[in-house]
Design goal:
This protein is of the alpha+beta class. Helix content is 54%, strand content 15%. The protein has helices at residues 16-39, 44-50, 69-83, and strands spanning 3-6, 53-57, 62-65.
Length: 85
């Protein structure tokens, strides 16, 4: 399953605080990535077969690329149900 996260370019200086902020954001994005993969485990075979990718932005928005319409709808349904828990 191809799930990626996108860290936005930020204008941080090279201080310890900015490095901590970048590390914190990266940790949250990794959490969202693995949570998304866990939520979609029931569709993993279909997702792998289709060759599409899932991109999670720093804002938390999820983009689906290259999936057939039917699978795209299934993924959206699963992710919406997971957010309601």
């Amino acid at each position: 399953m191809k799930v990626y996260y996108k860290l936005e370019d930020t204008e941080y200086d090279d201080t310890a605080l900015s490095k901590l902020a970048t590390s914190s954001i990266t940790m949250v994005l990794k959490y969202w990535k693995y949570r998304t993969m866990w939520d979609l485990r029931s569709l993993e075979a279909e997702i792998d077969e289709s060759g599409g990718i899932i991109i999670i932005e720093q804002s938390g928005r999820t983009h689906l690329r290259g999936f057939p319409r039917e699978l795209n709808d299934k993924i959206i349904e699963v992710l919406k149900a997971a957010d309601q828990c």
